[in-house]
From TrEMBL:
Keyword flag Transmembrane helix: yes
Molecular function terms, GO-annotated: beta-glucosidase activity
Statement: the UniProt record of this protein carries the keyword Transmembrane helix: yes
Lineage of the species this protein comes from: Eukaryota, Viridiplantae, Streptophyta, Embryophyta, Tracheophyta
Name of the protein described by the UniProt record: Beta-glucosidase
Length: 571
């Protein structure tokens, strides 16, 4: 009875939030505002979603080690050992993706689930191969397609211990061998590959500030036992670039002709506004872009680092050989961009020849406010201020500087407080405004000639958010970490479902039907675990469709349903 009451309580809140959704918004956006063939999807990563961290032959990664040895560096002292248990629940989650109407699911492959010791010589884990084959096949059978990231920060711990991971150029060959296995085993069904996700953020968090794995930094920067924030970031970045180029070369030479896929890289970048209308502020904003975006995109497009970095970092910035530069230049079919927020940039007058660091090398002072006014709407995350125009300006800048490469927005989203009551978390109107305003700006950029081809929300599910643990929620789907990891569609998921549907889909399958209540299919468990499962999970508790549902849904006369965007102002 208690479980039934629990579900009824949440169903009540679902009814309220969905009905409120239809009556509280004005203005609209449609899928028709984007080109034919434009794709929409949800994004994820292995460590943040899968769980099963030490099961079925998976080896440890630096994130397994980091969260275990340094719980104080995670906001709530948690780990990704269980996370969303996507490893066992992927079929139910894919069914929910289908329910929402997503075209693609972006996920990463765990290096150590394929090669537990990071090397071919350490053995290939067939159970890992089987898992990803099953995941890909399930996506395809449900009408979705995979968009796969090969490396999303989870360096094999064995390689970290053997030679320092990405601090050593030895990793290039091991990464090459790992991706070769992935291309061979999965490439016949995969048309989009991302070599590395956010190499800049991985490097900054792991080797500049030390707040993320492997937790290295100078002692004058953060609480780290080892590291050098002025040298190691550039070494790691260099080896990440060489790994990327090696993977692209391999794919193009050995697999692309037969598998007919595309390969690229995903870079996170902020947009930077000159804080003042001065030459100094304008130059500072451009330097900030060079040190964040150009650090990785310039070598991939032009074959070398930005001139500003060469001038300011000097001999601490590694040099590419002629053959390396040639291998890097043009090594992408598309550019993935992860955009979240914007900063003001101004020239920094302070400099130090003693406490050198990547953070001060650019001679830029970054701020989130001007004259006491925030750059955008603040959120629960101290680094994320909502500035939708930034996504448009960023891709326009890329079009101009890098000759308009094909772009996929591989991450875009906003977080809520992880401890909010479930009814409050489900009513995520801020996320709807965030999605809608960013999509509107992206649509404007496309009309201005930018070759943007797809958009992925971060994230499909709430998940383990690195050093924030579970204290914040980026998902369009709520994960109840206190009650069996039950999934609930948030208000933003309803919005996205409505945005994606075409008229014939709406008529045959109304929006509200089969969408209320928890979405929690019984997880796939190992045979030896069947008897100890205690939660008695059921498929879904669904309300009966009523005439009121039809009244709320209405009919759409256009080919693509326009969905409301912005809340009405209170009278």
């Amino acid at each position: 009875m208690e479980i039934l009451h629990h579900h009824r309580h949440h169903l009540f809140w679902y009814v309220l939030l969905v009905v409120a959704y239809f009556f509280s918004f004005t203005e609209s956006i449609s899928r028709r505002d984007f080109p034919a063939g434009f794709i929409f999807g949800g994004a994820s990563s292995a460590y943040q979603y899968e769980g099963a961290a030490f099961q079925h032959g998976k080896g440890p990664s630096i994130w397994d080690t980091f969260t275990m040895e340094h719980p104080e560096k995670i906001a709530d002292h948690t780990t990704g050992d269980i996370a969303d248990e996507f490893y066992y629940r992927f079929k139910g989650d894919i069914a929910l993706m289908k329910e929402i109407g997503l075209d693609f699911f972006r996920f990463s492959i765990s290096w150590t689930r394929i090669l537990p010791k990071g090397k071919i010589s350490g053995g290939v884990n067939q159970k890992g191969i089987t898992f990803y084959n099953n995941l890909i096949n399930e996506l395809l059978s449900q009408g979705l397609k995979p968009f796969i990231t090969l490396f999303h920060w989870d360096v094999p711990q064995a390689l970290e211990e053997e030679y320092g991971g990405f601090l050593s150029q030895n990793i290039v060959d091991d990464y090459h061998n790992y991706v070769d296995v992935c291309f061979k085993e999965f490439g016949d069904r995969v048309k989009y590959w991302v070599t590395i996700n956010e190499p800049n953020i991985f490097t900054i968090g792991g080797y500049v500030t030390g707040v993320e794995a492997p937790g290295r930094c100078s002692n004058y920067i953060g609480n780290c036992t080892y590291g050098n924030s002025g040298t190691e970031p550039y070494i790691v970045g260099h080896n990440l670039l060489l790994s990327h180029a090696t993977a692209v070369k391999l794919y193009k030479k050995k697999y692309q002709a037969s598998q007919m896929g595309e390969i690229g890289i995903s870079i996170q970048s902020l947009w930077y506004l000159p804080k003042y209308q001065t030459v100094a502020s304008t130059k500072a904003a451009l330097r900030a872009l060079d040190f964040m975006l150009g650090w990785f995109v310039d070598p991939i497009i032009f074959g070398d680092y930005p001139k500003t970095m060469r001038a300011l970092v000097g001999t601490r910035l590694p040099v590419f050989t002629e053959s390396q530069s040639k291998m890097l230049k043009g090594s992408l079919d598309f550019l993935g961009i992860n955009y979240y927020t914007t900063r003001y940039a101004d020239d920094s007058t302070s400099s130090s020849t003693i406490n050198i660091s990547y953070t001060t090398d650019s001679h830029v002072n970054l701020t989130t406010e001007k004259d006491g006014i925030p750059i955008g709407q603040p959120t629960v995350v101290d680094w994320l201020y909502i500035y939708p125009r930034g996504i448009r300006e960023l891709v326009l800048y890329i079009k101009k500087k890098y000759n308009n490469p094909p772009i996929y927005i591989t991450e875009n989203g906003v977080a809520d407080n992880g401890s909010s009551p479930i009814q409050e978390a489900l009513n995520d109107s801020l996320r709807i405004k965030y999605y809608c305003s960013h999509l509107s700006n992206l649509s404007e950029a496309i009309r201005a000639g930018v070759d943007v081809r797809g958009y992925f929300v971060w994230s499909f599910l709430d998940d383990f958010e690195w050093d924030s643990g579970y204290t914040i929620r980026f998902g369009m789907t709520y994960v109840d970490y206190k009650n069996g990891l039950t999934r609930y569609m948030k208000r933003s998921a309803f919005w996205f479902k409505n945005f994606l549907q075409k008229e014939n889909v709406i008529k045959s399958k109304p929006l509200l039907y089969q969408s209320f209540g928890p979405f929690n299919p019984k997880p796939k468990v190992r045979a030896e675990e069947e008897e100890v499962s205690e939660d008695g999970r059921k498929e879904s508790i669904l309300p009966k469709r009523t005439a009121e549902d039809d009244l709320v849904i209405g009919k759409s006369k256009s080919q693509d349903r326009k969905v409301p965007c912005r809340p009405r102002q209170s009278p």
